[in-house]
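ok so for the tutorial part 2 we go from a plain amino acid sequence to predicted structure tokens. step 1 is just haveing the sequence, like this:
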Amino acid sequence: MRFVALMLILLLSGCLESTVEDGRVFTVETLDRSEDSGPIYSMKDNLSEGPVLVLFIGVGCTGCKDWTDDLREHHADWMAQDPPLQIVSVERYLQFETKEDVAEEFGSPESNHYTPWPIVLPTDDDSIQRIEDQANLSQSIFEYYGLPGTPELFLIDQDGVIRWESSTYYPNENSIQEIENEYNKVI
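step 2 — the prediction. this is what the tokens look like for a chain of 187 residues:
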């Protein structure tokens, strides 16, 4: 009888609701422009204001440039919402692209693909952190996000949980609406 009960528990355990993922955040160096609000970006601080859309970028990535240009068109409106939908661009390939490369391509109003929101520069050694105490965990930021390519977008809710991930290299006519729909689900 105990064996049958144990087997039922094991078989049905997949039907039980899993626990909610603990929130994760990062605190890393920025380009240190006025748009970055200082030399260090804290996702936890930003999440206290509203959800964050994370965009992994690379200097040579044409999809990243298209996403940046499309997102820039909506950035001011999103920041005026309550709560704001914030954006952060995460340079993915610092081992190949320099801080200066990133600044030249995305960093100033004179850049080809100006980014009016924070740009962060994590390394492979920067750890993801628990949201509640910002303790460094064993995973790097890149490992936590599944070793993303570029471009890759993630919508993070105010608890630090990934709620949406993009599925297109280039934005399309539905991309902005999809992001706004996901934002509305998390607020």
